[in-house]
Write a structure and sequence with these properties.
The protein has 765 residues and is an alpha+beta fold. Helices cover 14% and strands 34% of the residues. It is built from 14 helices and 46 strands. The strands form 11 sheets. Strands 43-42-41-46-44-45 form a 6-stranded mixed β-sheet, with helices on one face. A hairpin with a 4-residue loop joins strand 27 and strand 28 (365-369). Mean pLDDT is 81; it is low at 1-16, 163-207, 545-573 and 681-720. Keywords: Repeat, WD repeat. This is WD repeat-containing 48. WD repeats lie at residues 80-111, 122-164, 214-255, 256-297.
C-alpha cells in the first residue's frame, strides 16, 4: 500500500519513490470459466415468472461471474472484473446490488444485472478484506471485516451518493483520487493514512461519507453475520471469540468465549437470537445471544470448519471445511449425516431451493441435493451418527476406521472451471514460459503475444523443460506469479527495458536484420494498441504526436528529471505493432496497474476506451507508448578484451577494453577483426567513442588501441586468392558465429571479471 507523502514535508529527502508497476494477466482461451478456487457464492432468485435464477461466484482469480441457471444448465452471462487480487466474499442486497470484497483492500459495489460495471469502490480498509454481511430486510446495510482488525458498517445509499458531478462510476472504478484534494474526492475512496496526511483526510470528510466503525478487534477478522433486520452484527477471527455489536452505532454488546482456535464462519438466525459458529478447532457451536452462552457444541468435522448454511427454519445446519466433507446436522437431536465428500476443501455453501451449491479451493462449483425443506428425508436414508461435544471425538472415530459413508456419490450438476496453474518456468529466451496445470497438462506460452503456442498434453514438466533449453542469455525483463491461477506478468521500470533482440531473430519482415528491438517497449505497444486507436478516435492524431500525454505537471517534472531519455525508433514506426507482439482479441489479457490518482485497477485491454491517462497509467508506460522514450538503462553493454591466441602470429589489434551491446553476435566480432587486419584501417582514424554496433566496424575503446607491426600481412600480395578465416575463442573453446556476447559470458566465460576473447587466423582458398 502506497502511503501519501506529507504536503508539509520540506526536508531534503532524496529517497526515490518506487515507480508503480504495470502487470498484464494472461487469460485462458475460455474466459467464461474461473481459473482458481471459488471463495464465495450468492444466489439471486428470479424476480418474475419465466426469468432465470442467477448464481454469483467470486474467485481467487480476481473476478466474479454471473451464471444464468436453467434445468441442468448454467451459462456465464457476465464477468465482473475490477478487483486486482482474490475476491474473498460477495453478498447480494436490495435485489440488484452486488457487493464484493477482496485482498486488494477494497469493497466494490456492482449492479448485479449489468454487464459487469463497478459503480463504486470503497477504500477504507488497511489490509485484506475477508468477509461481508448484508441484512436481508435492510438493503442499505452491509458490514465488512478484514485482516487489519477493522469492521466497518456501510450505508450503501449514503456511500453511493455523489459529492460532485465528476464522482461517477468510472472514477470510482479505479481512478478515485487518493493523494490530492480533487473536487471528486469522497472519503469512501480514501484509505486511512498516517502522520500529517490526516490533513487531507479531514479535509474530505466534511464532503464525503464515513462508515460506522465497530472498534474492538485487536487481530484479524475472518467472519461476519447479521440478522434480517440489520440490528445485530456478529464477528469472529483469530482472537477465538465471537463479538456481538449494534451495527447502528458500532457499540459492543458482548463477547462470547468457547472456541480454541480461529473462528472462520458465522451464521445468525433471522431474529438474531441464535448464532452458529465454525472454527479451525473443528467445532461447530450454537450460541444463545439472549443468555450470552454456548448452548450446544457439535464435533462433526475432523478439521477446520470454513462454511455454514442453515435450513430456512434454522433447525438443521449444513457445514463444510478443510476435511473436504459436507455434513448435515440436526441442531436439536445432534444427529449428523455425511452428505458428500469432495476432492478439495470446501470454502463456501449456498442453499438454492432443495439443492445446495458447494464451492471449493478448486475452480469448479457443484450442486448437490439438500432437501432443505424436508431434511428428515436425508436422515431416513441411514448412515447418521450422533455428533460428539468434544473436538477429538470425530477425529478418533475416523482414525478407528468407522468413518461415515456419504449419502451422495455424484453432484446433480457441475459448473466446471479451468484447471489452475501449479508450476511454471521462464525459459532462457525470456519470451516463452512453460506451465503445468492441476490436471497435469503442460503448455508453452509466448509472453509477448499472451497466448499458448504449444499444448504438450500430459508429459513430464522437467523433461520438457530440458528439451526446450537454449543456450542463450537474455536479461530478466519481467517477473511472473500465478497467485490468480493464471500467469501474471509484471513489468517494472527501468529493469523491464533491459532486454533487446535483433529483428531477424524475431522474424520481423520489413526491418533491417540488425535493428534492435526492445522487448518491453514492443510488448507495451501491443498491449495498448486498442487503447491508442480509441484515443486517436477521441482526440485525433495529435493525441500521440504532439506530446499531449503526459500532460500533467507531475509527469513533466519526472520526465525532465531523468538524466537522459532514449528514443531510438523512427517516428513513422512508433505505433506499428509487429507480429511477435500482437495480442489476441479473442482472449485478450487484462491490465492491472495504477496511475497518479486512485488505487490499482484491472481491465481487459479491449475494454479500454481511450480516456485513460496519467491518472490511470504509470507515467513511464505512457512515455514509452506515446513518445517512444525509454528511461536510462543499465547493463545493456558488455565489456571485453580481444587478444590473439597464445602462440598465434596474428597482429595485436588493441590492448584496450572494448565495449559492445550484450546482444552482439560473434560474427560481428569476426568482421571487426577482419576489417582491422585485412583493410588495415589505421586505428587513430577511429572514433574512440563510436559504438561497436551492428554494421559499424568500430569499437567503444576505453584505452588507446595499439596496432602490431603488421608483419603477418606484409608477405601477402593484395590480389592473392588466400582468404583469411578468423576464429574467435573463449576459454580455448571455438565460439559459434551466431552466439551473443551475453551468452558467451554466461555459459562459456562464467566469471565476474571482464570477458576475454581470443582470435586466430586460419588461411583457406
Amino acid at each position: 500500500m502506497h502511503r501519501v507523502g506529507s504536503a508539509g514535508n520540506t526536508s531534503n529527502s532524496v529517497r526515490s519513490r518506487k515507480e508503480k508497476k504495470f502487470t498484464y494477466v494472461l487469460n485462458d482461451s475460455d474466459d467464461t470459466k474461473h481459473c482458481a478456487g471459488i471463495n464465495c457464492l450468492a444466489v439471486l432468485k428470479s424476480s418474475g415468472p419465466g426469468g432465470p435464477d442467477y448464481l454469483f461466484t467470486g474467485s481467487r482469480d480476481g473476478t466474479l461471474k454471473r451464471w444464468a441457471l436453467g434445468e441442468d444448465v448454467a451459462s456465464c452471462s457476465a464477468t465482473f472484473e475490477s478487483h486486482v487480487d482474490w475476491v474473498n466474499d460477495a453478498v447480494l442486497t436490495g435485489g440488484n446490488t452486488l457487493v464484493s470484497c477482496s485482498s486488494d483492500t477494497t469493497v466494490k459495489i456492482w449492479n448485479c444485472l449489468s454487464d459487469g460495471t463497478c459503480t463504486r469502490t470503497l477504500r477504507q480498509h488497511s489490509d485484506y478484506v475477508t468477509c461481508l454481511a448484508a441484512a436481508e430486510n435492510n438493503s442499505n446495510i452491509v458490514a465488512s471485516g478484514g485482516l487489519g482488525g477493522e469492521v466497518f458498517i456501510w450505508d450503501l445509499e449514503a456511500a453511493h451518493a455523489p459529492v460532485s458531478k465528476s464522482n461517477d462510476a468510472a472514477e470510482d472504478d479505479g481512478a478515485a483520487s487518493v493523494n490530492g484534494l480533487g473536487s471528486s474526492l469522497t472519503n469512501t475512496s480514501m484509505r486511512p493514512i498516517g502522520s500529517s496526511n490526516n490533513i487531507s483526510l479531514h479535509a474530505t470528510q466534511s464532503q464525503g461519507y464515513t462508515p460506522i466503525s465497530a472498534k474492538g478487534h485487536k487481530e484479524s477478522v475472518y467472519a461476519l453475520a447479521t440478522n434480517n433486520q440489520g440490528t445485530i452484527l456478529v464477528s469472529g477471527g483469530t482472537e477465538k471469540v465471537v463479538r456481538v455489536w449494534d451495527p447502528r452505532t458500532g457499540s459492543k454488546n458482548m463477547k462470547l468465549r468457547g472456541h480454541t482456535d480461529n473462528i472462520r464462519t458465522l451464521l445468525l438466525d433471522s431474529s438474531g437470537r441464535f448464532c452458529l459458529s465454525g472454527s479451525s478447532d473443528s467445532m461447530i457451536r450454537l450460541w444463545d445471544l439472549g443468555q450470552q452462552r454456548c448452548v450446544h457444541s457439535y464435533a462433526v468435522h475432523t478439521d477446520s470448519v470454513w462454511a455454514l448454511a442453515s435450513t430456512p427454519t434454522y433447525s438443521h445446519v449444513y457445514s463444510g471445511g478443510r476435511d473436504s466433507s459436507l455434513y448435515l446436522t440436526d441442531l436439536d437431536t445432534r444427529e449428523s449425516v455425511l452428505l458428500c465428500t469432495k476432492e478439495h476443501p470446501i470454502s463456501r455453501l449456498a442453499l438454492h431451493d432443495d439443492s445446495i451449491w458447494v464451492a471449493t479451493t478448486d475452480s469448479s462449483v457443484d450442486r448437490w441435493p439438500s432437501e432443505a425443506h424436508n431434511p428428515l428425508k436425508v436422515f431416513q436414508r441411514g448412515g447418521s451418527f450422533l455428533a460428539g461435544n468434544l473436538s477429538f471425538s470425530r477425529a478418533r472415530v475416523s482414525l478407528e476406521g468407522s468413518a461415515p459413508v456419504p449419502v451422495y456419490r455424484e453432484p446433480s450438476f457441475s459448473i466446471p472451471g479451468t484447471p489452475a496453474l501449479v508450476q511454471h518456468e521462464i525459459l532462457n529466451n525470456r519470451r516463452h514460459v512453460l506451465t503445468k496445470v492441476t490436471t497435469g497438462s503442460v503448455k508453452l506460452w509466448e509472453i509477448t503475444k499472451g497466448m499458448v503456442i504449444e499444448n504438450y498434453g500430459k508429459v513430464s514438466f522437467e523433461k520438457k523443460k530440458e528439451e526446450l533449453f537454449e543456450m542463450v542469455s537474455i536479461p530478466a525483463w519481467y517477473t511472473i506469479d500465478t497467485r490468480l491461477g493464471c500467469l501474471s506478468v509484471h513489468l517494472e521500470t527501468p529493469q523491464c527495458f533491459s532486454a533487446e533482440m535483433y529483428s531477424t531473430d524475431l522474424n520481423i519482415s520489413g526491418k533491417p536484420e540488425d535493428d534492435k528491438v526492445n522487448l518491453a517497449r514492443e510488448t507495451l505497444k501491443g498491449l495498448l494498441s486498442h487503447w491508442l486507436i480509441k484515443r486517436r478516435q477521441r482526440f485525433g492524431s495529435q493525441a500521440s504526436a504532439n506530446g499531449e500525454i503526459p500532460s500533467g505537471k507531475d509527469m513533466s517534472t519526472r520526465t525532465l528529471a531523468l538524466s537522459r531519455i532514449e528514443g531510438d525508433s523512427t517516428a513513422e514506426n512508433d505505433h506499428v505493432v509487429y507480429p511477435p507482439f500482437e495480442f489476441s482479441a479473442a482472449s485478450p489479457p487484462s491490465i492491472v496497474t495504477e496511475g497518479s490518482q486512485g488505487g490499482p485497477w484491472r481491465k481487459k485491454i479491449t475494454d479500454l476506451d481511450g480516456t485513460e491517462d496519467e491518472k490511470d497509467f504509470p507515467w513511464w508506460v505512457l512515455d514509452c507508448v506515446m513518445h517512444n522514450r525509454l528511461p536510462p538503462r543499465e547493463n545493456t553493454k558488455c565489456s571485453f578484451y580481444l587478444h590473439p591466441c597464445e602462440g598465434s602470429m596474428a597482429q595485436i589489434l588493441t590492448q584496450g577494453k572494448l565495449s559492445a551491446p550484450r546482444i552482439l553476435r560473434i560474427h560481428k566480432v569476426v568482421n571487426y577483426v577482419i576489417e582491422k587486419m585485412v583493410l588495415d584501417k589505421p586505428v587513430d582514424s577511429m572514433n574512440a567513442d563510436g559504438a561497436f554496433a551492428p554494421g559499424m566496424p568500430g569499437s567503444q575503446i576505453s584505452h588507446p588501441a595499439v596496432v602490431g607491426d603488421g608483419s603477418f600481412w606484409s608477405g601477402l600480395k593484395p590480389r592473392q586468392k588466400l582468404k583469411p578465416c578468423i576464429e574467435i575463442l573463449c576459454n580455448n573453446q571455438v565460439l559459434p558465429p551466431d552466439m551473443s556476447l551475453a551468452t558467451v559470458r554466461a555459459y562459456i566465460w562464467k566469471k565476474p571479471e571482464d570477458l576475454i576473447l581470443n582470435y586466430r587466423v586460419v588461411l583457406g582458398r
